[in-house]
Amino acid sequence: MEATALLLDCVTAADFEPHLGSEFAVVGSAPLRLAEATVSRLVREDGRPFSLVFEAPLEVRLDQGMRAMSHPDLGSMDLFLVPIAPTATASRYEALFN
Predict the structure, then answer these.
(1) Which residue has the higher pLDDT, 47 or 54?
(2) Contact at 8 Å (CB) between 54 and 86?
(3) Long-range contacts for 13-16 (Cβ within 8 Å, ≥24 apart)?
(4) Within its chain, how far is the Cα of 86 from the centroid?
(5) Which tops the pLDDT comparison, 49 or 81?
(6) 8 Å CB contact between 32 and 26
(7) DSSP 41-97
(8) Is the bond preceding residue 49 a cis peptide, omega within 30 degrees?
(9) 63 pLDDT exceeds 80?
(10) pTM to 2 decimal places
């Protein structure tokens, strides 16, 4: 059964917060773990802007670009991921929502 598409026009960080620490499947890559859901200091009434940070093992290297992803509870989504500074143990990727 195919996952339902998540409507990204309406989501906020609060929609992702219950899933911190869970894995998101990524087409053509190892899964990514949701590490952070951060609301901007200048948040509007609609809960934006916010960012999501995903982590993967250091050996996982993704270029900047759109990634088809899915989560068992949230459904499928296409997110634009940008590599950011890695930690000592993980590659990190950020998705921004304006």
Answers:
(1) 54
(2) no
(3) 13/37, 13/38, 13/39, 13/47, 13/50, 13/52, 14/47, 15/74, 16/52, 16/74
(4) 15
(5) 81
(6) yes
(7) TT--TT--SEEEEEEEETT----SEEEEEEETTTEEEEEEEEEE---SSEEEEEEEE
(8) yes
(9) yes
(10) 0.90
Residue 13: its H or E element: helix 13-16
- Residue 26 neighbours by CB distance under 10 Å: 20
Distance between CA atoms of 54 and 48, rounded to whole angstroms? 18
Task: Count the residues in the chain.
Answer: 98
For residue 46, with 0-12 CB atoms within 10 Å meaning exposed, 13-18 middle and 19 or more buried, which class applies? Answer: exposed
Residue type at 53 in one-letter notation? V
The amino acid sitting at 19 is H
Summarised one tens digit per residue, pLDDT across range 7-35 is 888 899 999 999 999 999 999 999 999 99
